Amino acid sequence: MIRPRPAAVAGVLLLGAFLALGVLVRDRPPALDRAVADALHGQWREPVGAVTAVLSDAVFGPLLPVLLAGVLLVAAWVLWRRGRRANAALLLRIWVLLALCRLTSFVFKPIYLRDRPRVFPDFAYPSGHVVSVASTGFALVVLCAWLAPRLLRWVAWIAVLATALSAACRIVLGVHWVSDTVGAVLAVTGVGLLGCLPLRLLPSQAGELSAARKAA
């Protein structure tokens, strides 16, 4: 289990890395960004681009956290009505955590004002699609840690894979640099770990964890 102090340190380091990376890449894409963008130049016009666009917008994109947020609110309301208020409160805290993680792209894009590899609306850093998928995955991992620990490893791997696929889609479409997707993961993980502290979502409070599992 992650303890509060290591989680706080890791969260600060990851968030600091996100902020520093944004400063480093804001005005001039690094060599890796340029190399990948040049290698995939024009792929968004090809059939692979059409398929990738559908996957990016319909599967690995902003729809995921919206759906999860709705499910969490409905489930919390049902549990509250049934008298299982501890679990309802847990779901509401995870909803807040999801919102905090998702907000990273809305907050920081207007700060860094980074241009995209090709002409496209909005700014680049961090990738909103990758933030969406990573936020959803992070929230689900926390949920499983509390209520379904047997599924934790599987959910964690699925979250990592989905985030990687989301990043790949955005890069293939030429709407994000590699560093935009890396920054998205750093931001979500850093904010997520730090957000878990005041929300008491780190599964290290043995009493709360045991009670939540018994009520599940």
UniProtKB/TrEMBL annotation:
List membrane-spanning regions: 59-78, 90-108, 128-148, 155-178, 184-203
Keywords noted in UniProt: Membrane, Transmembrane, Transmembrane helix
Q: InterPro entries under this entry?
A: PAP2/HPO (IPR000326), PAP2/HPO_sf (IPR036938)
The answer to keyword Cytoplasm applying to this record is no
- Record domain Phosphatidic acid phosphatase type 2/haloperoxidase: where: 98-189
What Pfam families has UniProt attached to this entry? PAP2
Which named protein is this?
Undecaprenyl-diphosphatase
Q: Species name for this entry?
A: Amycolatopsis cihanbeyliensis
Q: What is the lineage of its organism?
A: Bacteria, Bacillati, Actinomycetota, Actinomycetes, Pseudonocardiales
